[in-house]
Amino acid sequence: MALNTLVVDDSSVMRTIIIKTLKLAGLPLGDIWEAKNGEEGLHVLQDHWVDLAMIDIHMPVMDGEEMLIKVRENDQYKNLPVIVISSESDPGKIEKMLELGATFIHKPFTPEVLKEVIVEVTGVSHENED
């Protein structure tokens, strides 16, 4: 299964890092879409099938928490695997994202951690494994 992935972060540099890490992980990737805030991310979800969303918390227009709440309210995406990648240190904020069904990765992260979490939340494995 190729993973169609949505990367939502207001930092174009961080989106690039995440996408490069995805490509280097050896996981089966489909289309990759980028959005710079939660509102743009929701538009991508309306227009495309996405298997995995990777979002930041702190973004302008619509933050990651509000986006995740709206994703969970949508029947089509209520079970979408979501990985929150953030430098957030407030335990209450992190707990809220976990309660909404997301998995949390602190910035900075290693490619190995990202790959491990993607495999855990999606069930996919390396492209060259049977």
General description of the model:
This protein has 130 residues and is of the alpha/beta class. The protein has a single domain, classed as 3-Layer(aba) Sandwich (Rossmann fold), CATH 3.40.50.2300. Helices cover 42% and strands 20% of the residues. It has 5 helices and 5 strands; from the N terminus they run βαβαβαβαβα. The protein has a 5-stranded parallel beta sheet, sandwiched between helices. β3, α3 and β4 form a beta-alpha-beta unit. The longest helix has 13 residues. The termini are close together. The model has no long low-confidence stretch (mean pLDDT 90).
In short:
The protein has 130 residues and is an alpha/beta fold.
Order of helices and strands: EHEHEHEHEH
Global morphology:
globular
Strand segment tally: 5
**Beta-strand content bin:** 15-25%
CATH class: Alpha Beta
User: Domains counted in the coordinates: how many?
Assistant: 1
Radius of gyration: 13 Å
Helix proportion: 40-55%
- Strand order, sheet with most strands: 2-1-3-4-5
Most strands sheet? 5 strands, parallel
- Name the average pLDDT: 90
Number of helix segments? Answer: 5
In CATH terms, the superfamily is Response regulator
Distance between the termini: 12 Å
Within the CATH hierarchy, at the fold level, what is the topology? Rossmann fold
Structural class: alpha/beta
Q: Which stretches are poorly predicted, pLDDT < 50 over at least 5 residues?
A: none
